[in-house]
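Re-run with default settings, no changes from the original entry. Doing this only to confirm the output is reproducible before filing.
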Amino acid sequence: MAEFDAVVVGAGHNGLAAAVHLAARGWKVAVVEAASAAGGAVKTLELTEPGFRHDLCAMNLSMFAGSAFFSTYKQELTQAGLGLVPAPKCFASVFPDGTHLGVGTDVAATVAAIDSLSPADAAAWKAMLEGFGADAPHIFALLGSPMPSLGSLKAVWKAYRAVGLEGLYRMARLLLATPRDFLDAHFENDKLKAMMAAWGLHLDFAPDVAGGALFPYLESMANQAFGMVIGAGGADTIIKAMVKVLKDKGGEVLLDSPVQTIKLTNGKATGVVLADGREISAGKAVIANVHPKLLFGNLVPKSPDRAVFDKKVDAFRAGPGAMMIHLSMDDLPDWSAGPELKSYAYVHIAPDMQMMSRVYAEAMAGLLPAEPALVVGQPTAIDPTRAPDGKHVLWVQVRMLPAAIRGDALGQITERDWDGAKAAYAERVLDVLERYAPGTRSKIRARAIYSPVDLQRENPNLIGGDSLSGSHHLDQNFLFRPVAGYSRYKTPVAGLYMCGASTWPGAGTGAGSGFMLGKMLAG
């Protein structure tokens, strides 16, 4: 039986971050992964044609580039081959009248575009950006602290010392507000508000869901202030580098090694048993970068002592499903709103808050939305190495879909399972794209479509195609993620810890939970 100080179940970026930090502190660490490649939802594959590299799920690596983990291990990760490519034109929204509004690192250009819609909003945007410089360090300090912890209390205290009680009230309202209420309080133009609110759909925040204002605010301001980055050659650059750094520190990564059960000795997690019968012992910790429903539904032996906890885990809600459509292209879309849109990393097709609310309501009712909300990624506009010369890849994420289909909002698609419905729904998606970029279909060379069910098959942690590993609504966030009383990565099983998107601070590529857990364990 192989013996280690820690065994990490799941080679997602959070699990790898925990493993790297523990190995750097002298722990003997093994990472076991069921799939044939590390990365979880951060993978880059030739899904359509040879030479066309597609980010399967995650594309935007700005959270990783701004993370405490990257700051700590930047030199080693860079030496291990990690490459980031800046996207000076970050995101834009397109509108039915043939116009667009975008954000990049050129503040003057952004302000001028907003000023053409509303001089008052241009002034408000500049004021918000200035306030972001003062508030952001405190917000990121809170997001980068275990919840609850002395660190989170220190973050609040430092914020109070810097911005006063009124500043604390302002930040608290931001954390609790709906996107609509927050944006209505600051701006008057509907296009500007829609451009920012579209970021809420990257999580599960429709315009009128409490707690949804923070992400649109942070993404809009951070992209304006710092820009966006994607991975050189693909998002998997961070995974390859993390694996190499881990191995250089003596850690091991075992692929094609699904875990059958977490081994318990006198009620304590002491290792794992793999599906092929191998046992790997963990003298100090077993870390699960696994959705809690899979961990306590499949991998940890049942115990009546955990009845209350298990009931809470069973009630942990998924966010809406997503669909991924990957296209190899002869050229990028010709956007009706202007040729400059070809240079943006993201183009959102979610033109107003009424449409966003409707999409969310339809998806949560089990309906295929009549007009899907789209995040159109154009990675080869930023990094042409991902496709042969002169060719491109298009990354289309369809936000807010039902995991189980009860009906079609348009009454056109009759299939009630995703295997039967996905081709027809993908055509609806392309119809929307074609409306804003005529001729796009004629540029498509090949396609790979991943329905919510396909995403779960590829990665069982994406239950129902939920790329968030659990809704981020307020009752499942902060102190309540994944369940009340267990937001500090511990579980009721001694020696067993959780990290990943299901835990605080939630989804994204920031590696926050894994790094914080690694620091807590290593001391």
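The radius of gyration is 22 Å. Residues 150-176 form the longest helix (27 residues).
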